[in-house]
Amino acid sequence: MSATTEPLHLSLYIELGDEVDDDELDRITRRLMAEIQTLNVESVELLRDELPPEGAKLAEAITLGALLMAVLPGAIPPLLGLVQSWLLRDQSRKVKIRTEIEGQTVELEYSGSMTLDELKTLSVLFLAQ
């Protein structure tokens, strides 16, 4: 990762499996967002759809299970630690974190069924980008 002090813009996508309906996915996403807000991140919000569905009000035009964050490089390790902890609460959870670094898209996928060592290894690889 470069030594910049500019925030990284991260997209986080939650996957919970087919047995979870849209309302539950929205509730879980908002709870994770509240946890992330306790960290020293620049911002975190629900990811808005680029093109809302026909007839949708602007406030309804969100991508279910997705968050958009602006995070300074120093806040990445605590963020990844929180995501690791959150995933370990339920093995069916999966999270994808996507960002763009120096014109390249970098994506990291975590799974609740991964061991703590596997999660730490992925975190180190992500931070090395």
Features:
globular; 31% strand; 5 strands; 129 residues; five-stranded antiparallel beta sheet; Alpha-Beta Plaits; alpha+beta; 3 helices
Number of domains: 1
Oligomer category: single chain
CATH class: Alpha Beta
CATH third-tier fold name: Alpha-Beta Plaits
Total number of helices: 3
Question: How does this structure look, described?
Answer:
With 129 residues, the chain is α+β, with helices and mostly antiparallel strands. It contains three helices and five strands. The protein has helices spanning 22-37, 76-88, 116-127; strands at 8-15, 43-48, 62-71, 94-101, 104-111. It is globular. The model has no long low-confidence stretch (mean pLDDT 82).
Helix and strand arrangement:
Elements (H helix, E strand, L loop, with lengths): L7 E8 L6 H16 L5 E6 L13 E10 L4 H13 L5 E8 L2 E8 L4 H12 L2
Antiparallel strand pairs: 1-3, 1-4, 2-3, 4-5
Helix pairs in contact: 2-3
